[in-house]
Amino acid sequence: MNARQDNAGNDSKFRIMTSNIWGNCGDNAIANRDDNLADVFMEYMPDVLGLQEVSPKARREPVSLFDLLDGRYTEVAVPIGELSNNYTPLLHTQRLTVLESGFHRFSGLNDSNSKSITWAVFECTRSGQRFAVCNVHFYWKSDQAGEEARRSNSRELMSVADAIQQRWPVPVCCIGDFNCRIGSAPVQHLFEHGFLDAQVTAAVQTSDSNAHHPYPKWDEAQQAFVHGPAPTGTYREAIDHVFYRGDQAAVGEYVTVLDQKALDASDHCPVYADFSFEGGGKL
């Protein structure tokens, strides 16, 4: 469902997707998971793709996910300072040009420096419409220290989003693995500062699903991951989100991708929203 070949013919609509690829996998094989993810991304063809958990191991694969997407997607170049890896890269198709980009590592608790924001301001090469995307991964532990870390993550994300919109009067989308539900204090902080939830405001309501689920199983005989279970629960339990701020942004459809290839690739389903940015993308 909702797959497409291309969106280049409609210069006012853009598909924005987030996907935690389960890249912090230690000694576990990646095996067929990259191929499954590439197939899913190429089928649904988001214009902007935000990934989380892109570990050094994920980048070092003999044929990595980036190799499989080469020719259709380009990674946004950002300075990461003294860090050795960007775990939260943004990718985009050729219909978009990057006007400005940046990176922010969250302060405080931060395993392997993997919790960060990669952001970019995009312009459609044909229509000139502009919008910004922040790809984020909040801290994960469920204890009190983890909760405080996510509150801090939310405040820092707001500072980044505010700074972008001060320089660029365009809508901004914040996507990613927030590791907290919509009723949590970190997410409510975003809502209190003008952000909306794409799942709630979508004109076409097709997804009321949690996107987080148990890991797929390793099949020794096949040397592959299989039988990834579908998530249980509703969107109220979800920790992967698409939020946005900007009066000229509208959401057509919000989708949690439940294809078996997606379920066999990670413990998170990809999630996307189809946006239109009327009036040139101005606030």
Question: What features would you describe in this structure?
Answer:
This protein is an alpha+beta fold. It has a single domain (13-281), classed as Deoxyribonuclease I, Chain A, CATH 3.60.10. It has seven helices and 15 strands. The chain has a seven-stranded mixed β-sheet. A six-stranded mixed β-sheet has the order 5-6-7-8-13-9. β11 (217-219) and β12 (224-226) form a beta hairpin. The longest helix has 24 residues, at 144-167. It is globular. The two termini are 32 Å apart. The model has no long low-confidence stretch (mean pLDDT 94). Its cofactor is Mg(2+).
Which labels suit this protein?
283 residues, alpha+beta, Deoxyribonuclease I, Chain A, 7-stranded mixed sheet, 6-stranded mixed sheet, 15 strands, Endonuclease/exonuclease/phosphatase domain-containing protein, metal-binding, single-stranded DNA binding
Q: Overall pLDDT, averaged?
A: 94
Question: How many strands, what sense, and barrel or not for the largest sheet?
Answer: 7 strands, mixed
Question: For the CA atoms, what is the radius of gyration?
Answer: 17 Å
**Level-2 CATH architecture:** 4-Layer Sandwich
Determine the CATH superfamily. Answer: Endonuclease/exonuclease/phosphatase
Share of helix, binned? 10-25%
By DSSP, the count of extended strands is 15
Instruction: Determine the strand fraction and express it as a percent band.
Output: 25-35%
**What sort of overall outline do the alpha carbons produce when their principal axes are compared?**
globular
Main β-sheet, spatial strand arrangement: 3-4-2-1-15-14-10
**What structural class is derived from the secondary structure elements?**
alpha+beta
Q: What's the total helix number?
A: 7
- The CATH C-level name is Alpha Beta
Unreliable parts: none
CATH topology: Deoxyribonuclease I, Chain A
GO cellular component, one term: cytoplasm
Protein name: Endonuclease/exonuclease/phosphatase domain-containing protein
InterPro entries: Endo/exonuclease/phosphatase, TDP2-like
GO biological process, one term: double-strand break repair
